[in-house]
Amino acid sequence: MLIARNGRGRVVEWPSAPAMDTMLAELRQGDYMILERKDEERDGDWYVQVLFRDDGTYQLEYRDGVPAEHYQTVTASREKACEALVDWAAGKPGWREGFEWNNLGAMFAAPVVKAEDLPAT
């Protein structure tokens, strides 16, 4: 199941391409929308999210199941952001093309605790 939702509480199940485009067009600076894939047979979080930044650009992030597979990019084009959402929703393999993605996975990793940092017992 695909679910689109925004920060103002709007939720659309199985959104069409026009519905995704409308949701993006309605974003105000600081607003976001998330397109999430819910699949009982796949563990983890599978989503693409878009933040309309204060500078008028669109920050896209996606996660492929686990925190280590979390990526981010920025585009000035709402059309490119919408195309990425639509192609991701359709499962098109080339949906990431045309962007320079940065891996943010390390930001979500559990901290490493060294033995010498643990309290003595």
Please render the helix and strand layout as text.
Blueprint: E1 2-6, E2 11-13, H1 17-25, E3 32-37, E4 45-52, E5 58-65, E6 70-75, H2 78-90, E7 102-103
Antiparallel strand pairs: 1-2, 1-3, 3-4, 4-5, 5-6, 6-7
Helix pairs in contact: 1-2
Fold and architecture overview:
The chain is of the alpha+beta class and 121 residues long. 18% of the residues lie in helices and 31% in strands. The protein has a 7-stranded antiparallel sheet with strand order 2-1-3-4-5-6-7, covered by helices on one side. Strand 4 (45-52) and strand 5 form a beta hairpin. The longest helix is centred in the C-terminal third of the chain and has 13 residues, at 78-90. It is globular and about 60 Å long. The model has no long low-confidence stretch (mean pLDDT 87).
